[in-house]
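pls ignore typos typing on phone
calcium ion + seq
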Amino acid sequence: MIGSGGRGAETGGKVLVVEDEFSLASTISYNLKREGFDAHTCARGDEAVKAAADYVPDLIILDIMLPGMDGFEVCRKIRRSSSVPILMLTARDEEIDRVVGLEIGADDYLTKPFSMRELIARTRAMLRRRTLLREELVTAEAQEARDEWLESDDLRVNTATRDVFLADKPVRLRPKEFDLLTFLLKHKRQVFSAERLLDLVWGYEAAVDTGTVSVHVSNLRRKIERDASRPQRLETVRGVGYRFVR
Ligand code: CA
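k done
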């Protein structure tokens, strides 16, 4: 596509600037916008908490000495509901000590006076870190979703919802039948004796013996095999035990 849809569509991120010194707030905002960020300024601490909720910034640049509510309190309040990166602007040594102590949940700080170049560099670094974290989270979630399904031929099992489908038709299994099936599916082709299955699937429950395993195997076969008397999926390995093959 030729042309641009305007700056808004390609913004480098939304930054909330909380600073009561008008000239400094304007300079920061001007430089952020020039570097492709979307910037919103706010001069009071109490308004900043509301702006953080309404504007939903990707990053907050937060001064400490503010009218209404100081930056420490603003940071603490925002942290109750958001993990947005917060860059604190400090002017005095005792402020630095409190920010560095991390008790308030800020991610980084800059000491006044600072250069605009330094501020932009920090902003970029913090936003990049946030993007990377988000990407990792999305990848981990996708992996988890994939891990939920166990498949073999036309049999599909969802370990999270405990749904079982055979050729896309739902199959009703009792809890222990489900546990036995998922266990064998996860260890496809591996042979397990009835005693071993009893330990691994049932655990050491008092009232069950290996007969329970064979009963569950037969029940499972009736539900997932085409012909339970000639099993194609859940095989008996004579004299050894059982295994899932298909
Ligand atoms: Ca101030």
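The pocket of calcium ion is lined by residues 20-21, 63, 65-66 (CB under 6 Å). Helices lie at 22-34, 45-55, 71-79, 93-100, 116-147, 175-186, 194-202, 210-224. more later
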